[in-house]
Structure to design on (285 residues):
């Protein structure tokens, strides 16, 4: 079977009536998602907007929590592909 | 259409990638390694973020680049966006096929891809808890969070790659953060 590389291939689901608000795929709505209230200042800061330090500090523990998450995701941003992988891919290609 | 200066390097990049693709299609297979080197790191981060497993991420990346090589003649426009979709679909297929329970990094002795031994050793509790919480998110929210926070992409870049609007992606990222905070608040807040 040929691979379908159309970027929209996985969106080829039956047409649903949509409205102005975004609808998640059915698979994503199977489990109701509980959510906390994250202050707008935190969202804005995480989105890279300029936010007054006083507003962030007012968020207290939530600010500290997201600073920790940011530190962790920052480490992940520096992850590199394992060095042997490129060679393995090229070896597999040459076998073709 | 007005083209900003910031968009200019992107056009250059598309041309440079296309030149490499032309060489590969003409028989110079070795040139494909340049495309792997150019794009593998952000794609690897995406796959690790989506699967929580460096080992599975490496498999997805390998299969995706092989698939990309086999279908290289079908590239229209940006190679990076095209190969991103192959990897993203590979991750979604993996999520559909794998019933994940809990993947512990401590139990995973595969190379993690962190740069230094210090980073390798710094396996705080938050890392495992964040992985577990990310694993509980619906795929579309996890994808948006990983692209924003782990890959460090702008909303505009995400919108281009996922072919959706900036507003929809902001909503997904915000929902992902609020769900993650809820999942982790008992322990960390």
């Amino acid at each position: 079977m040929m691979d379908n590389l159309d970027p929209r291939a996985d969106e080829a689901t039956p047409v649903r009536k949509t409205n102005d608000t975004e609808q998640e795929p059915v698979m994503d709505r199977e489990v109701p998602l509980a959510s906390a209230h994250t202050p707008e200042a935190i969202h804005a800061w995480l989105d890279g907007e300029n936010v007054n330090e006083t507003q962030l500090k007012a968020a207290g523990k939530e600010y500290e929590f997201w600073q920790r998450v940011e530190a962790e995701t920052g480490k992940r941003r520096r992850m590199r592909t394992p060095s042997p992988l490129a060679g393995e891919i090229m070896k597999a290609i040459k076998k073709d | 259409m007005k083209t900003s200066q910031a968009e200019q390097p992107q056009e250059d990049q598309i041309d440079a990638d296309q030149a490499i693709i032309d060489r590969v299609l003409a028989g110079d297979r070795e040139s494909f390694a340049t495309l792997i080197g150019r794009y593998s790191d952000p794609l690897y981060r995406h796959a690790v973020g989506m699967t929580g497993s460096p080992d599975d991420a490496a498999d997805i990346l390998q299969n995706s680049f092989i698939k990309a090589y086999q279908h290289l003649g079908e590239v229209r426009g940006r190679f990076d966006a095209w190969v991103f979709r192959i990897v993203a679909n590979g991750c979604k297929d993996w999520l559909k096929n794998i019933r994940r329970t809990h993947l512990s990094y401590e139990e995973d002795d595969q190379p993690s891809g962190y740069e230094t031994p210090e980073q390798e050793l710094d396996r705080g509790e938050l890392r495992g808890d964040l992985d577990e919480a990310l694993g509980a998110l619906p795929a579309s929210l996890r994808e948006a969070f990983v692209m924003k926070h782990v890959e460090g992409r702008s909303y505009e870049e995400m919108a281009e790659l996922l072919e959706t609007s900036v507003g929809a992606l902001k909503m997904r990222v915000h929902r992902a953060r609020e769900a993650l905070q809820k999942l982790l608040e008992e322990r960390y807040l």
